[in-house]
Amino acid sequence: TKRAAVQKYFIPDKTQMFLISDISQSGDVSIAWPKTKDGESERTQLTEVVRNSQRIVVGAAAFQLGENKMETKSFHEAPGPPLKSYIFEPPGLSDEEHKVALHGLYVERATKALSDVMTDFPNLSLDDRLAFIVKDWEMVKRLRPLLEEALSLKFPTRSFKLVDADTASSRVDRRSYADEEWLVLDEMANFDGLERLIVLCIGLDSEIEHPNSNVRETRSLLYRAFTRAHMIVAVINEKIPGGFLEFLTTCRLEKTEKFDQEKEKKQVNYDAVDKAISSAFEKIMEKKQLHKDAI
User: Looking at residue 293, what DSSP letter applies?
Assistant: First the structure.
């Protein structure tokens, strides 16, 4: 594990451990924090976010955990552009045909989101500034050839190249690739600890009360993906009834009002996700018990 990899360098009474972490990034809530020789570790609560715009901090708050989540705010005064959503109706086809058509629709919406970014910032090079974050490696494999083809056809004057997070992080001399714009395409697990100016979140949602859905993991994926972005976040997802992002289908952007971070925070229901997850687990356990009794 990552903890074991770090602890092998720990020398008792000599090494000082300084851990910066966030419970919201975990798929679990029962985390065992490192202990000192006295049995307890000293904790400091950090509430100011330097990386994200004000809108991203407030948007991510819907998926945040922790007793002090209402105190979290952006350190700087940049509100950033509004968060955008590209929610679409899934195709009603048989299993394999559904998957093929579905991934084609994801690529279509992803290129639309990219096009919108380029329209809003026409002179901005996207080299090493934009990331497509997806749920898992299987989705990366399915989307990569489709997205490469779509980028080539839709943006013939731009030399976009899809790279994984590890490759993007290993590049030192950008001058060697001056004719290319590297865009990251990778699963969220490989993007932990990294960040980009723009993040497009693809296919991260799931039905909260589905018996095979890991709702805690979905909440964690959404929070982690949102908070990888400095300035722009967009969500691209098929419409999932009962999903975390279903509410976005009824949202309308108000362009006339100035963004007020503190005012918007007061409108966030910080307990909504916790209650939804607890309710989902209760219903799933009830169904399993009924099934067991029937057997």
Answer: H
